[in-house]
## 1
Amino acid sequence: MLYLIDEPMADIGLRTAADDPDACVVLIQDGVFLSPELDADLYAVEKDAAVRGVDLPEGIEEITYDGLIDLIVENEVKNFV
């Protein structure tokens, strides 16, 4: 399951993802300010991080919007934006 996480709904989204052994989490928009500690694949949209001047912590892979689209097409999505 792919979880799209932005700041306003982050707590709910991250708790839900934590209970999913197949979780894949993408931080988008203001979600890039978060540093979740999950046993999941973690991604952040590089343009969102760059615009906000955020240096992503180790363990979070930067992806492009094209990469995000690929993940959305390949996975069932839960949106917490």
## 2
Amino acid sequence: MGESLKDKVAIIGIGCTKFGELHEKSLQDLMVEASFAAYADAGIEPDRVEAAWLGTFSPGFGGGKASVTLADALRLYGKPITRVENYCATGTDAFRNACLAVAAGVYDVALVVGAEKLRDRPVRGLQREGTHPYLEAGSTPPGLFALAANRYFHRFGGDRRTLAKVAVKNHHNGALNPKAHFQMEVTEEQVLNAPLIAYPFGLYDCCPTTDGAAAVIICRADLARQFRDDPVYVKGIGLAVETGWPFFDPTFEYVGFPATTAAAAEAYRMAGIRHPAREISVAEVHDCFTWTEIANYEDLGFCRKGEGRYFIEEGRSALTGDLPVNPSGGLKSFGHPIGASGVRMLTEIVLQLRGQAGARQVKNAELGLVHNLGGPGSVACVVILGR
């Protein structure tokens, strides 16, 4: 193993737009809004940034062309800008790459932006971007993840009421968040009686496609207190990639995602975490579907395999639980503009660690986790942040 990133990089500024159907704003409008909010939060001028990373899954949806989109939006001409795309882990992987450069001493201050416009194009049009004949024939993300959810219930028990508890929790948290796409509470009965999408998933079991952007500014850790008194430090990062089509792999068990387990193991090793359920204060995990959050509890080591249903049923992941998960409302309520989601999740954990999360503040937050799962379980990124 090479050198660790632990405590070599600090987050000194964050910014996030409201998420939702933002037809009146362009992709570049969202980038500008998030980035200038981050500049203001860090107390720096734009020219202090030496390099930037842009996480966007498909900038063509918003009229963008790779890194040029960010250069034009922010007038960052003459500076290195790298566009990163890695399924739904795009935002966190952009952050990871920026951290590697800053930790290596190549740059002192860098900007990471995640942005996406998904509501200007029908979901069916997005689906046709798939390159595998199985997708082109009509397979959908809800259908693929529903296969895994059904297998999980067959092996470990649980039912749609278990999933409904995740939806109720995350909508409750989202109702406390003024920037969330869905700021509304739902009941278990509403979730269970909603139209079915792909059994066992109903409408409220699926995250929405969304427009939005988020930004973070990072610097060398030894410079952090020149910018602010309460920097948040990067403690560990793990990225892991599995096959692009696990559902075609005869060894795939349909009850979890090996990429998450591997990414978490690397992040925990780097951060020195041995007992994640006891050491992590708060987590933002990838709840593209309600069942995925349950699988994440297990793959991230919050509980043992097969016990994720009890983790939600016993209230352990609630705001008042012993390990609150998705206090922002998660993808389920905050929304999921693919390239922006991971960066947005980082901003939530920074707010929690600063004690600035308002009504959704987790008490005594010392160590936070961000997790993204990309594609059909193909790639995962885990980031550990601390004070």
